[in-house]
Amino acid sequence: MDYFFAIDLAQSIIDGLLFGTTYALIGIGFTLIFGVMKKLNLAYGAAALAGTYVGLAGSLSFSLPPLAVFALSAFGSSVVGYFVYVGCFRFTPDNYPMASLLASVGMLLFIDELIIHISNGMPYPYPSALRNAEITLGDIWIRGDLIFVFLICVLAMGFLYWLLYRTPLGLATRAVSQQPRAAKLCGIATEKVNALTFLIAGFLGGIAGAMTAAAVGVLSPIIAMGLTVKGLIVVVIGGLGSIPGAIIGGLLVGAAENVFLLLRGVSERDIYVMLLLFLFLTLRPDGLFGTTKSRD
Amino acid sequence: MEFYLGLLQILGVHTLLGLSAYIVLLTGQVSMAQAGFYAIGAYVSAICTAMLGLHILPAILIGAAVTAVVACIVAFPALRVHGLMLVVATLAFGEIVRLFFFNLDWQTVIDGKLIGPNGAEGFRAIRFFPENGWETGDVAGFIWIIVLCVMGILWWIDNSRAGAVLRAVGHDEIAAQSVGLNLTIIKVSAMTAGGFIAGLGGGIFAHTVTHIEHGIFGVLLATFAIAYPILGGIGSVFGTLLAVLFIQGFLIEGLRFIGDWRSLLFGALIVVAMNLRPTGLLGERMIYFKDLFGRKAQASNLGKEID
């Protein structure tokens, strides 16, 4: 292994770790929703994308500064997440998970088509912060916009931790995810908590979508599928229902993806990521931090 | 007329795809790997006819058999996990298959032309039907004979002890295990059967469109595969058939006149359908004529509601 290869490798791993925080956020969103509802929301990536487009609309029509665009994206995705809850989860029966699964697929197609319809399927430039800044450590360059992505995502995770562990709201959410019936008996309105979880998860998804678009520089409807698939992979690697697991899973997937990109090229990259996932599933089905109890 | 015969072909191959997911769903497993199985069947049988010069019938049977073997091998590790994890595991498998064909480059020279899977460009000129003078109607008839055979066999399985065993596993794994059913064997057999049917469907699909590429067999096709039986209801094979008619016939072809807004309505209608009929259009149980028109119809319907 020569020096330049080592530098390239270190560079890929650092870039991957920084960008991996967006995967971690999406993974956290999936984990949160699964935690309280015990159901899979396949429309989550699409909701995140829709929120990002709301931010883009703000940017195009009012020429907002980048930070306001990101905030608008997060809130927009939050609102879309609530609609997904009402459309797919609120009125479908609890004991028949396939109904909400398919409803969320329908919602995914609907949101995707709505975005394509409104934007005519064209990619649009998306603002980013600190694009021209960079940090140089010896021969390794760290892109300023990736550092910004990293910082925002870490901030969002900190906010989530504060919400879950320092507020009565978080207490109620954790209670519902541990034992919905007992939580109901204690007087917690589970439906409200469920709706709230979709709002919070949507917020995180919106940030992840905005940061993905900011790191890439353009926004197009294609990234919805990528967000969904990568988010699911992160959840499985980290362990279902575990937030630290989702964070570490996200960083791992981000780094692994970039290393495979360096070693095998863009067309084969995803094969190896999927193989990694398949290995994880067969050798360690509970993920890194999952418990056997969280599986039913 | 050509148009309707073409539509019949589409309905036929999609019914096979839906039925492949149906038999896996009976055991309570949501498999997103069906698009991958479909792709394997499509490529293998296309290789058999276009590159090795076989007749269509042995070609699709070889394709289906290869797919069944792959499904069986994949099922053992994949079925160690349940629910969400299985969705993700099978999704990953489907993507691996798709990306494998995306990178597959294997062409031979036949009649002075390069024929075979060519990476991102796909597999061109799978021209068995036009070369042998099959009309659109002949192809549609051929497809529907196979579809009806598969449906008949599945209907028979469903009404035999095997169907009861599959449904027992689907309803409650622990209860099924405690009456002495071997979960692994049952789930792996369902997956293998699903793989066989998907491979059959994929093989026919490849020959009707004459050109296949990796992009067709993505996550979207996999979601369609599970959408048919869930939307139609897993009570019987007719649920899947009805859902294929509803989605492919009504939502995709029938609503063409509303133009651009069709694709929007498509997703919205699925959401509405699942809210109104969460167990599918035909419900979770088999519907018999005697339930609808017989003397005991009233009583048995009441009984169902109590369940």
**Assembly state (oligomeric):** heterodimer
Low-confidence runs of at least 5 consecutive residues of chain A: none
Largest interface: pair, residues per side? A-B, 48 and 45 residues
Low-confidence parts of chain B: 297-307
- Give me the number of helical elements of chain A: 11
Mean pLDDT of chain B: 84
Beta-strand content of chain B: under 5%
Profile the largest sheet of chain B.
Answer: 2 strands, antiparallel
Nearest-angstrom radius of gyration of chain A?
19 Å
What fraction of residues of chain A sit in β-strands?
under 5%
The largest sheet of chain B has its strands arranged as 1-2
Total individual domains of chain A: 1
**What structural category characterises the helix and strand content of chain A?**
mainly alpha
- Helix count, DSSP H or I runs of 4 or more residues of chain B: 14
Quantity of strands of chain B, as a count: 4
Q: Biggest sheet of chain A, in brief?
A: 2 strands, antiparallel
Order of strands, widest sheet of chain A: 1-4
Descriptive notes:
The complex is a heterodimer of chains A (about 300) and B (about 300). Chain A is built from eleven helices and four strands. Chain A has about 300 residues and is mainly alpha-helical. Chain A has one domain. In chain A, helix 2 packs across helix 8 (about 190-215) and helix 3 (about 65-90) crosses helix 8. Chain B has about 300 residues and is mainly α. Chain B is built from 14 helices and four strands. In chain B, helix 1 runs parallel beside helix 6, helix 2 runs antiparallel to helix 3 (about 55-80) and helix 10 crosses helix 11. The chains are: A mainly alpha (about 300), B mainly alpha (about 300). Chains A and B meet through helix 4, helix 9 and helix 11 of A and helix 4, helix 10 and helix 12 of B.
